[in-house]
Design brief:
Layout lengths: L2 E7 L6 H16 L5 H4 L3 E7 L14 E8 L5 H19 L8 E8 L4 E3 L2 E3 L1 H18 L5
Parallel strand pairs: 1-2, 3-4
Antiparallel strand pairs: 1-3, 5-6
Helix pairs in contact: 1-3
Length: 148
C-alpha cells in the first residue's frame, strides 16, 4: 500500500487533490493489487507545497518536483519501477500544464522492510498484508458480487 509524497514550490499544481488521486490510482494500477477497500483506502499521495525559496538546485533553479514512492519490499519489479517513474512523471507534468517539467521531476522509489508498514496500530509483515487482503476479498465475495 504505497505512500506517495510530492514536493514542489507552491503554485506548481492547480489542483493538488486531483494530482494526489491520480498518482495514487496510477501506482495502485501498476502494482496490480486487487481493487478492494484495503488498497483503495490505504494507497495515498500527499502534496507538499514548499514556500518560495525552499527549493533550489546548485544553480539556484527552483522549478523542480520530487516524488517519493514508498512501497513494501519487493512490490515493484523492474518493469513496474520503470512504469511508476514514467507515469508519475507524466502525471505531474500534465497536472502542472508544463511538459518540460518532466525533465525536472525526480522520482525516488523506496522500499519499506518487511514489518516496516504500520497500519491500524500494527507493524505488518508482507505475509500479514497478503493475508489481510485475502480475508477482505473472501468477505466481499461472501457478502456481495466482486469484480475480482
Amino acid at each position: 500500500m504505497p505512500m506517495i509524497d510530492v514536493f514542489a514550490t507552491a503554485g506548481t499544481f492547480a489542483d493538488t487533490h486531483r494530482l494526489a488521486a491520480d498518482l495514487a490510482a496510477a501506482v495502485m494500477t501498476i502494482e496490480r493489487v486487487p481493487d478492494i477497500p484495503m488498497f483503495r483506502q490505504n494507497t495515498a499521495a500527499f502534496i507538499h507545497d514548499l514556500p518560495a525559496g525552499n527549493l533550489s538546485n546548485v544553480d539556484g533553479d527552483t522549478n523542480y518536483v520530487r516524488i517519493q514512492v514508498l512501497t513494501n519490499a519487493g512490490a515493484l519489479d523492474r518493469a513496474k519501477q520503470l512504469a511508476v517513474v514514467e507515469q508519475l512523471t507524466r502525471i505531474a507534468a500534465d497536472a502542472a500544464g508544463d511538459p518540460t517539467l518532466a525533465s525536472r521531476t525526480w522520482v525516488l522509489l523506496t522500499e519499506a522492510p518487511d514489518g516496516g508498514w504500520g497500519l491500524n496500530g500494527h507493524a505488518n509483515t508482507n505475509e500479514e498484508l497478503v493475508a489481510a487482503a485475502r480475508a477482505q476479498i473472501a468477505s466481499l465475495r461472501a457478502g456481495q458480487p466482486s469484480a475480482d
